[in-house]
Amino acid sequence: MRIACLGGGPAGLYFAISMKLHDPAHEIVVIERNRPDDTFGWGVVLSDETLDNLAANDAVSAARIREHFAYWDDIAVIHDGVKTVSTGHGFCGIGRRQLLLLLQARARELDIELRFESDIPEAAIDELRREFDLVLAADGLNSRTRQRYAEHFQPDIDVRACKFVWLSTHQTFNDAFTFIFEKTEHGWVWAHAYQFDADTATFIVECSEATWRAFGFGEMSQQASIAVCERIFARHLDGHALMSNANHIRGSAWINFPRVLCARWSFDNVVLMGDAAATAHFSIGSGTKLALESAIALADYLHSEPDMASAFDRYEEERRLEVLRLQSAARNSTEWFEQVERYLDLDPVQFNYSLLTRSQRISHENLRLRDPAWLESAERWFQAQAGNEGSARAPMFAPYRLRDMQLINRVVVSPMAQYKAVDGCPSDWHFVHYAERAKGGAGLVYTEMTCVSPAGRITPGCPGFYAPEHEAAWQRLCDFVHAETPAKLCAQIGHSGPKGSTQLGWQEMDAPLPEGNWPIMAASAVPWSARNQVPRAMDRADMERVRDEFVAAARMAERAGFDMLEVHAAHGYLLSSFITPLTNRRDDDYGGSLENRMRYPLEVIRAVRAAWPAHKPLSVRISANDWVGDEGVTPDEAVEIARLLQAVEVDIVDVSAGQTSTQAKPQYGRMFQTPFSDRIRNETGMATMAVGNIYQADHVNSILMAGRADLVCLARPHLADPYWTLHAAAGIQDGECEWPAPYRAGRDQLQRLAERGEGWV
């Protein structure tokens, strides 16, 4: 093949090398617009895994690269005057310029033509396509090739919020990969610093756009900008200067990071690689890793697949998955830094943990493998904050107090509809279901949404708080749980609103009943879907009646013996129909602005708080994101909703999301709703509960330890395993959970199996 590689960075050079190793007969030219030793950036970071992949592909260049590596094992975080160091992280760095020179030398040995200072305008790319059998576009972040064929590649470019500048210094930071956070007269500025050769370290300076503007960095020359950075970080630089190698760039060299992802990576005989195809934020250090491993993969497929089109398809299919994984981690990391000022008031222990786990690639137990001593000290700190001085148990087993309610741990059984009530009365099914989960070790057990009136039921199988027999059935449960377990019980009360009079959950969710439908009402006459009833828009008399029904239900829950109460104001039910602008079309005092949309829900919540005993906590569940962009409730607005709830003495917010509209487009994933809890908790100071695809003890512990929530709710795991908490404790070898006395023999066997790394099956 005759191959042109556009771009002389790691992707272009290493692809050329890999192709020559497969078949020396290939004619390959690498075309680079800059000089051989020009490079924007300083050091790059690779993992041992990537080094092993390089060695398997080309032992010669891998050995040369390894000779120039700087290794370090620690991460240091300097925040609030405290330096926190954790170990076991295993990084290696090399100068980008050194890496390029090594790859250039290897390419020449393999008879690859290198053309430097050869600028290829967009129009000339068409000619290259005709001249060469294959054109590899590894022409970087601002790829002209990607732009030339944008209609085919369909690039999605998301310019991120923070400003950064890529510098270096002879202060080597040779003991750790170091993060430094400095508070200045214009806001917070932070640095990512790591050694990459014997006497030089990368020093990336980053800040918010507002801070960057306040300093006037955009109007400064590079040298003036560098001088300000030297002043900000003077006590960490120990007299060493900061340096830039971006002299070929006009202005101060500060940029916003663009996240690039293309819908397609190939067109005809052109294929994208490296930053031209996809970028991963520098805070997870994986851009060069992606480029080198993609080069290996494409070269392999071009020699294993029957034709070039098949090779491109396989390359894209298999590498895209890895890219998406890294981009997901990079997005989490990027957003953490963009929002870092939210966390800077955390204790240094919690701040360090939050930083280390920001991408979700490092979990709680993974940290234990890396640095068990530091993690144990962090767990002791967490337990001490919870009043459990001297304990080193995992965060999920820290006690928690809300008003006079004391929980033995932070695990919550989420409310999950059972659809087994008869005329609103909970049945033996409910008794067994909730009693089992209370015996299962969770600190707090929720009942499903219990409706305040017959017309407020979601389905005919939903339980209620509106008849004496309901109260008696719930009291039977409360009496058993309080007598036989340490668990506390929370009653969730709500009204179905526009989602009422629908089928049981295992029939057709949110679909109208085939017959026997009852009238429904909501904030406005907006149906849940075209198939559902059009609800009656509530008038003032309706509002007063429903408010009083909530109050009556709260009083019934108190008499039944519940320890905590939650008002359901999420998921498109009646109170939620007022909060979201998607369903609130009112033009009176209850529609329009957030203040107006919250007016009626707050009226109900105030009345419930007044009726509910002062010594017992009150929660409200909200949908923190309608998943429809600015047309619905956004995470920004959710913070303001939480502040309004705080003002009416709500103790904790149960932070869910979505289910308010059929238009919603949720972004699913592990712990996908936790960021909304994190934001509310750390911007308002209000206690929160996290919920949403949380299913491992690792998830629970990382959420709590990082300060993303105070309690963690698990739903489906508790449907599959009523004893999830006790089993999770055994899995992490926590022997302090109290099992019901008749079950202790089972506990002992489970713990023995866990110690041997075995399970039940």
From TrEMBL:
Record-linked Gene3D superfamilies: 3.30.9.20, Aldolase class I, FAD/NAD(P)-binding domain
Transmembrane residue ranges: none
Domain NADH:flavin oxidoreductase/NADH oxidase N-terminal, chain residue ranges per copy: 396-734
Pfam family of the protein (one): Oxidored_FMN
FAD-binding domain location: 6-321
SUPFAM superfamilies on file: FAD/NAD(P)-binding domain, FMN-linked oxidoreductases
PANTHER family attached to this UniProt entry: BLR3436 PROTEIN, NADPH DEHYDROGENASE C23G7.10C-RELATED
Name this polypeptide is given: Bifunctional salicylyl-CoA 5-hydroxylase/oxidoreductase
UniProt organism field: Billgrantia ethanolica
